[in-house]
Specification:
mainly beta; 4-stranded antiparallel beta sheet; 3 helices; 47% strand
C-alpha cells in the first residue's frame, strides 16, 4: 500500500495513525519467513531435529539457511545425512540424501554450493542434481582435524572458503579455478601455538576472519578472535583478540546482519557494531544472546533482519518447536 493514500492531504489524525500502525504491523507479522516458522510444517520438521531419551539427547539439526524463495535444513544422523528444502510459496518439502555431512551451503541463483571437509558439490537448486564436484584446496595443502573447510561466502565473482589452519581458499566461481590462499598470521603468546580460521565474512574489499584456538598448554591458549584483512592491499588491518579471561570461542562462524557483525559461537550469538571493531582492544560484544524464549537452541539458527528463526527444545517440558523472535 501507499502510505500517502491513508492520510488525507492537510489533515493528520490519531485514527489514521492507528490504521497505519495496524497495517504495517500486519505486513511485518506475515512476512514469508515469520509466517513459515510459525506453521505446522516447520513445527513438524523441528521434531526431527533432536532425539531425547531420558537424560540423554542428540542434536541432529546442524544449521538452517534460507533465501527469499526457500528454507534449507541440514540434518546429520549416525548413519546418514540429509538436506531438507521447503518452498516458501507452496510449502512443498523435498529431501536430498547426502553422501557425507556438509559444513555449510551457499545459495547462488539456480545453484546450491554444498561445502564438505575438502570438497564442493554444486547442485541444481530445485532438483538437487549434481552439476560439478571439485576440491576445496590444492593437493599440496595438508589435511587433518583442524584443516577442514567450515564456512563459505561469495563475493567479487569468487568463492571464499574458511579452511582452518590452511587459511582461506579463493576460487573463481565461473571456471572454478584456484585464485589464491590468504592466511594472515596472528600474534601468539608462545611460538608453538596455532589458531584455525573457522568463520568468514566480506564487506566491500574487507575480509573478516574468526579464529579458534587449536593449541592449549597449561594456562596458555592460542589466539582466539577476529582479523580484518584488506583484499585490495593484501594486508592485515586489525587483529582483535578475545579476552580469554572472560570468554572463549568454539568454531565461531560469522554473519553480517543489519550493519552488525554477528559471531555464532555454539548456542550463543555475539553482536558487534562494525564501528567498534576499529577501536576495540578486545572482541567485546555489546549484546550476548544466550537465552531464547522457546527454550534451548538446536543447531545454528537462521538470522535475518534482526530476527532469529530455528528449532528449540524446552527440556523441562520435553517440548520441541519451531519459533522466531526479534532481537532488539
Amino acid at each position: 500500500f501507499n502510505f500517502y493514500t491513508i492520510i488525507p492531504q492537510g489533515r493528520f489524525s490519531m485514527k489514521y495513525l492507528f490504521y497505519f500502525i495496524i497495517l504495517t504491523s500486519q505486513a511485518f507479522a506475515y512476512s514469508p519467513l515469520k509466517q513459515y516458522f510459525n506453521s505446522s510444517l516447520a513445527h513438524n520438521i523441528c521434531q526431527e531435529s533432536i532425539s531425547v531419551r531420558g537424560a540423554y539427547s542428540k542434536k541432529h539439526l546442524k544449521f538452517i539457511k534460507a533465501s527469499d524463495r526457500e528454507v534449507f535444513y541440514f540434518f546429520k544422523y549416525p548413519q546418514h545425512s540429509k538436506l531438507v528444502r521447503v518452498d516458501l510459496k507452496n510449502y512443498k518439502r523435498s529431501d536430498l540424501s547426502l553422501e557425507r555431512p556438509i559444513n555449510d551451503l551457499l545459495i547462488l541463483n539456480s545453484e546450491i554450493v554444498l561445502l564438505y571437509d575438502y570438497q564442493i558439490l554444486v547442485v541444481d537448486r530445485i532438483s538437487g542434481n549434481l552439476i560439478v564436484r571439485m576440491n576445496t584446496q590444492p593437493h599440496h595443502f595438508p589435511r587433518g582435524k583442524n584443516h577442514k573447510a567450515s564456512q563459505i561466502k561469495y563475493a567479487h565473482g569468487n568463492l571464499y572458503i574458511a579452511h582452518g589452519l590452511n587459511g582461506v581458499m579463493v576460487f573463481n566461481y565461473r571456471n572454478l579455478s584456484f585464485e589464491r590462499n590468504i592466511n594472515p598470521k596472528v600474534k601468539q603468546p608462545e611460538a608453538f601455538h596455532r589458531s584455525s580460521i573457522t568463520g568468514i565474512e566480506l564487506s566491500a574489499d574487507r575480509l573478516y576472519l574468526s579464529y579458534d584456538d587449536v593449541t592449549i598448554v597449561r594456562d596458555s591458549k592460542a589466539f582466539e578472535g577476529l582479523v580484518v584483512y584488506d583484499l585490495f592491499l593484501n594486508t592485515k588491518l586489525r587483529e582483535i583478540p578475545v579476552n580469554q579471561n572472560q570468554e572463549a570461542y568454539y568454531m565461531p562462524r560469522l554473519q553480517f546482519d543489519r550493519g552488525e557483525l554477528l559471531v555464532l559461537n555454539l548456542d550463543l550469538i555475539f553482536r558487534h557494531k562494525i564501528s567498534d571493531l576499529s577501536t576495540d582492544r578486545y572482541m567485546r560484544p555489546y549484546q550476548r544472546i544466550w537465552k531464547y524464549p522457546a527454550g534451548n537452541l538446536i543447531g545454528r539458527p537462521l538470522i535475518n533482519n534482526a530476527s532469529v528463526y530455528g528449532c528449540f527444545i524446552d527440556y523441562r517440558n520435553n517440548y520441541i518447536q519451531s519459533d522466531e523472535f526479534y532481537i532488539k
